[in-house]
Amino acid sequence: MKNFVRSGEEGGARLKFIVVVAILATVAYAGYLYVPVAYQAFLFKDLMQTKVDAATVLSHPPAWVSDQLSKSAPEYSIPPDAVITPQIEGSRMEVRVQYTQPIEFPGFTYEYQFDHTAKGTEFLSTKK
Predict the structure, then answer these.
(1) 83 has which bridge partners?
(2) Which DSSP state fits 32?
(3) pLDDT at residue 32 greater than cutoff 80
(4) How far apart (Å, rounded) are the C-alpha atoms in residues 55 and 68?
(5) What is the pLDDT of residues 49-69, one digit of tens each?
(6) Which residues lie closer than 8 Å to 70 by C-beta, 6 or more apart?
(7) Between 120 and which of 4, 29, 61, 92 could a Cys-Cys bridge form, CB atoms 3.0 to 4.6 Å apart?
(8) Three-state DSSP class for 3?
(9) Which of 77-115 are b and which e, b meaning 16 or more Cβ less than 10 Å from the residue's Cβ?
């Protein structure tokens, strides 16, 4: 039976484990900060489409869509300086929302850019 002492390899597995755990913790923390912002933006896109379709069916003016989205913005964590631009293109209602939301990570700030245009479904239009 040979009993070798490997002095250069002591603690190697422990260091690798700590590095892997640190990387996983960093990725998990970044996801913890980013995912809620992206999810709220996804839900707001759905709301935008719903409001545009409702405005198209009910023949509301473009200002109605803007007003409805402005009222709902705090619920979706949309910054108050968001630019909401409704317009009528042909027989369809469209609304474009743009904003930047900072996400604070340790050491830097990521600027989440939201720029989405929702277009009313043409077959829902009451005007021909």
Answers:
(1) 98
(2) H
(3) yes
(4) 10
(5) 999 999 888 888 999 999 999
(6) 84
(7) 92
(8) coil
(9) ebeeebebebeeeeebbbbebebebeeeeeeeeeeeebe
E strands present in the chain: 83-89, 92-105, 108-119
User: For residue 64, what are the contacts with CB-CB under 8 A and spacing of at least 6?
Assistant: 55
C-alpha span between 123 and 128 (Å, rounded): 10
Tell me the whole-structure pTM to 2 decimals.
Answer: 0.79
**Sole residue written with tokens 């390899």:** 9
At which residue do the structure tokens 């929302």 appear?
97
**Strands 92-105 vs 108-119: parallel, antiparallel or unpaired:** antiparallel
- Domain spans, the chain: 11-123
